[in-house]
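Support case: 6-O-phosphoryl inosine monophosphate complex. Customer-provided input:
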Amino acid sequence: MPSTVIVGMQWGDEGKAKVLDFLAEDADLIVRYQGGANAGHTVVIGDDRFAFHLVPSGILRTGKVCVIGNGVVLDPEEIIGEIDELATRGVGVKGRLLISNRAHIVMPYHKAVEKAQEEGAGVGKIGTTLRGIGPAYVDKYRRTGVRAMDLLDESILRAKVAEGVKWTIPFVDGDNPALDLEKTVSDYMGYGERLGEFLVDSATFLNAGYAAGKALLFEGAQGTLLDVDFGTYPYVTSSSSSACGVCAGTGISPRHIDRVVGVVKAYTTRVGAGPFPTELLDETGERLRDVGGEFGTTTGRPRRCGWLDAVGLKFAAMLNGVDAIAITKLDVLTGIPVIRIAVAYRIAGKETREFPVGVAALEAAEPVYEEMPGWEEEIGDRTRLEDLPDNARRYVDRIADICGSETALVSVGRNRRETIVAGGECN
Ligand code: GDP
Ligand code: IMO
Ligand code: MG
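Agent response - structure generated as follows:
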């Protein structure tokens, strides 16, 4: 497994963390390349459930080194909370967690601006996670952002915070605590003291690891259809969440990406606003939400649920160049008599199999469904593909066919052990 990307193929929450934790057994270095604490990644091992926002999900595998790449926007308070929580649960990160000193830092004024914008937005509301992600990336591209290394230098930090506060003033009330320069500088110098030991030039570290034959696993956050360039803009996140973001977010050359595994949930979910052609606003949608436990890991919001969308999936498979897929939450479909897959959209009377670029077309899209018979048997205890009910196997094969790739894993429950190794190579 020289270097493998794990990427979400829909609108996030595909079960990336479960797949990553499973594959991390054979990896050496696990790397986040984009996003921030907007991510909510769940790993369940036996009776223990862990929810990660910033710490890579590989941290539960003994001896593995986890890296937060330069493409991530880091909320220091959040990551310190995660490190402390892991310690109380017996998971030490010392020497196993590294943070890029180039990573940009989420500041209080980023969250304040985002809150003001989302509250005032009305129709244009994105439904963000309010974690300051968009404004932190704006600050990065404005070339005024605070980088992790700046938390170790008070004069640089002070100058950047002053600029950030000045930039924020038009958007928030004057008494907003996010505008308190001295408090922010003092809090963030404190975070710097705490996080200093984790900071490295991760690009150099990762390239040395790759050259030494270490196996790298890149952990995507969000999903391809939330990618800032290729997703359903403007209803997207503010980073490159597809596999296209790996190189810029880590400093690993495209020549050194060896494999891409796309994580596909057996149906579709979306959190926040934006078009969702296969959304089910009926009892089947509610059933998927209940049985699938479709409530946000980060915000607790109920996720919107719908059928699998082959049009979006094909687009995601193309963009990511997937070699293999991991299908998750197949168990959630047990008991549904007829399962539907959107194979095309009808837009203004015309049928298309291409994923539209504009949201207006996507909002107008009526899904054209193909139907497949479901299965009644519980499948959580199945350990081989051959043991799945015939109709479940057919469904798995159909998804692989849509993505034009082989199936590496099929997940049939939230627990680490509820995973079928399907034969397709993940490494
Ligand atoms: P991520 O953001 O892609 O890592 O996904 P999340 O962790 O936000 O959401 C996936 C949810 O589904 C979590 O609660 C997982 O524990 C759960 N999950 C993952 N795989 C399976 C599966 O195969 N079956 C079931 N029932 N739950 C799963
Ligand atoms: P994981 O990694 C699902 C969504 C938000 C909103 C949009 C923009 O757990 O799959 P942002 O806060 O990023 O500016 O919000 O993106 N979103 C996610 N949806 N899973 C996620 O992460 C998400 N991260 C952001 O709901 O619609
Ligand atoms: Mg999630």
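The two ends are 4 Å apart (CA to CA).

Case will auto-close in a few days if no follow-up is received.
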